[in-house]
Write a structure and sequence with these properties.
Elements (H helix, E strand, L loop, with lengths): L1 H10 L3 E6 L5 E4 L6 E4 L1 H16 L3 E6 L2 H8 L9 H25 L3 E7 L1 H5 L1 H16 L2 E7 L13 H11 L4 E6 L25 E2 L4 H7 L11 H13 L4 E5 L5 H6 L6 E3 L8 H9 L4 E5 L1 H8 L10 E6 L6 E5 L5 E6 L4 H7 L4 H8 L13 E3 L2
Parallel strand pairs: 1-4, 1-7, 4-6, 5-6, 7-9, 8-10, 11-13
Antiparallel strand pairs: 2-3, 9-10, 11-12, 13-14, 14-15
Helix pairs in contact: 2-4, 3-4, 7-9, 8-9
This protein binds glutamic acid (GLU).
The site of glutamic acid has 15 residues, from α3 and β6.
Length: 390
Amino acid sequence: MNSKVRKDLLKNLKRVVIKIGSSVISHKEGDGSSLVLGLSEKMVLHYAREIKKLVDRGYEVVLVSSGAVMAGRKRLHLGRTQLSIPEKQACAAIGQSFLMHTYEKKFDKQELKTAQILLGNDDLENRKRYLNAKHTIDALISYGVIPIINENDSVTVDEIKIGDNDTLSATVACLANAQLLIILSDVEGLFTRDPGKPSQKDEDPAELIPLVTRVNAEIEKKAGKSNSHLTVGGMYTKVRAAKKTMSFGIPTLIVNGMDKKVLEKVFSGESVGTLFWSQEDKIKDRKHWIAHTLKPTGTIVIDAGAVRAIADKGKSLLPAGVIGYSGNFVFGNAVVIQDENQNEIARGLVNYSARDLDRIKGKKTEAIKNLMAEGFYQEVIHRDDLVLSP
Ligand code: GLU
């Protein structure tokens, strides 16, 4: 079953989010109490090469990288001293630019351009900002640029932080509509019990779990809650991240990023790490949220051609198909889509305000581009933000 699932996974794979943990791109210097960690240029270069191979094979890659605080600490020679929140935030600010500079240098060598996006909880909870982030990622990918995302650590205080990049990467995978999240960690995956602890007399040895189809209490328990001194994550946040992506129908793969061949193995269908995926479970929380939770703020009426495109062909709603609207919606609001006989066809999140829609409805793309300039979107409602009504 596991090997078939691994192959299925690759079949529809186009966009992948890869989370690189601090431990994967760091190296140790010194020992004992003087042991410090610094950014490993060698590992960054290694992953630049690996990602170049994926891009050349036609995959779209989005990176989520940790390492800012670690790199900042190192640059300030702070060793392992306990830091206050402002001090950590200062380290993040110093380390983030250094981290990006390193990524930029190494990716440049592979003729790949990179871009930095720093996200906070606010950006992810506010629909408008969420959609903005999503559009930016889409635009970067369409330019062939690799977005590199981290939390905006230097301005977010602990209480409102996302807190760990496992959670952030899960959100990014949903936001970017990826078909896979790969978490590169310094462990092989999820084990039947903590592989770090020696087994007791009557205990079975710790074994790697290759496939998890449901994150239940037992699996969460196996993930424990241990944190290493370096990362804020640990297996617990990884498993929680996997649970989140699974509820959006996106598989998550936790693998050992210290194994230099790991991405090669993943993309050739080899069974490495722990895959979290339930192929039957296709409840998409976000779509559910669009269809059932959000209160529509308006209605868009579309012609018969657009109805066919949306309902039968799975297409996005384009301005050319819009014949009318009502309500006073703005970018990011939920609206109902109706046919000419007032039958509800779908619901979705709009890219245009009612006012702008009035200017562009029925028009062709070129004319709209001229009219809207920077506010131009190809779609009135992108397919990913649209749910057909029963
Ligand atoms: N955003 C933090 C950093 O760049 C890391 C958080 C994590 O490792 O999960 O240092």
